[in-house]
Amino acid sequence: MNESFKSGFVAVVGRPNVGKSTLINRIIKQKVSIVSDKAQTTRNRILCVHTDDACQIVFLDTPGIHKPRHKLGKFMDEMAYQSLQDIDAVLFLVAGNEKRGPGDLFVLDKIAAAGVPVFLLINKIDKLSKGDILKEITDYANLYDFAQIIPISALQGDNVDTVVAELRKLLPSGPKYFPDDMMTDQPERLLVAEIVREKLLLATRDEVPHAIAVYVDEMKERGGKIYIRMTVFVERESQKRIVIGKNGAVLKEVGRLARSEIEHLLGNTVYLDIWVKVRSDWRNQASALSEFGYKNE
């Protein structure tokens, strides 16, 4: 083993909608986690791999820790907590443009129990003045003995390279756990479903995004194209109407946007066949959660 090569596992943790997936995508330099301005966009723990000549960092992109209101929410919190086991460091993300609340302190308590170095990343500094950034750094420094406090903009890329460089210094010498070209452990079917769910999150409103699940029923090559049949599940008929839109306009636009991204992912022409069905209260049904991929391994 090359003693100078570093490797390790790093959990990325924070409240919902603080920019965890945006940061991961920026580091990996490829979209491996969907993003939206809706809270709780990430539902599963997603393993993402950064490899360069000096290190391999395996990031665990976690759902935002929150007070669950249904079984899906409980599953999401469990995924985040499990990610704090057997790791080398934690990236604790907070939104610098939002007032610190009990949710941030609750997450910090959970992180502290992991007993590993914690990097505080104050995100969204593109929306802050220098004075505001310094105040955030000072306030958080009084709360916990962080290994590093780094102000960043995951969206703009500010100081993201610094995060990787500081992690590289901290991680132990170790092997490559995954091949150089591997960026995520998510199967293509799940990535495809998540792309469609992201477009639906962007196209819908109110409680509809949280009630959406996307399941790929069939994915195979037909006549040189990849045929993908998938079902979008919602919990009420009113939500189904919103997802479809007047004369199917919303679903058509979602399909158009998703198709382009999926074709880039798969490297082939894609035909999307999207259906919408109602499955009442699926977020509280253990069988539905397991079917849609929300299950503990």
Automatic annotation (TrEMBL):
Q: Which domain of life is it from?
A: Bacteria
State if Membrane is listed as a keyword. Answer: yes
What keywords sit in the KW lines? Answer: Cell membrane, Cytoplasm, GTP-binding, Membrane, Nucleotide-binding, Ribosome biogenesis, RNA-binding, rRNA-binding
Q: Where is the KH type-2 domain?
A: 204-280
Q: Which GO terms describe its molecular function?
A: GTP binding; GTPase activity; ribosomal small subunit binding; small ribosomal subunit rRNA binding
Entries under InterPro entries matching the protein? G_ERA_dom, GTP-bd, GTPase_Era-like, KH_dom-like_a/b, KH_dom_type_2, KH_sf_prok-type, P-loop_NTPase, Small_GTP-bd
Region entry G2, spans: 40-44
Give the principal location in a single coarse category.
cytoplasm
Where is the segment annotated G3? 61-64
Gene Ontology CC: cytosol; plasma membrane
Q: Show where the Era-type G domain sits.
A: 6-173
Q: Which parts of this chain are annotated as the region G1? A: 14-21
Protein's GO biological process: ribosomal small subunit assembly
What does the UniProt record say this protein does? An essential GTPase that binds both GDP and GTP, with rapid nucleotide exchange. Plays a role in 16S rRNA processing and 30S ribosomal subunit biogenesis and possibly also in cell cycle regulation and energy metabolism.
Q: What is this protein called?
A: GTPase Era
User: Is the Lipoprotein keyword given for this protein?
Assistant: no
Q: Print the organism lineage.
A: Bacteria, Bacillati, Bacillota, Negativicutes, Veillonellales
Q: Where is this region: G4?
A: 123-126
Q: Where is this region: G5?
A: 152-154
Compartment annotation: Cytoplasm; Cell membrane
Source species? Megasphaera vaginalis (ex Srinivasan et al. 2021)
The UniProt entry, under SUPFAM superfamilies, shows: P-loop containing nucleoside triphosphate hydrolases, Prokaryotic type KH domain (KH-domain type II)
Q: How does it assemble?
A: Monomer.
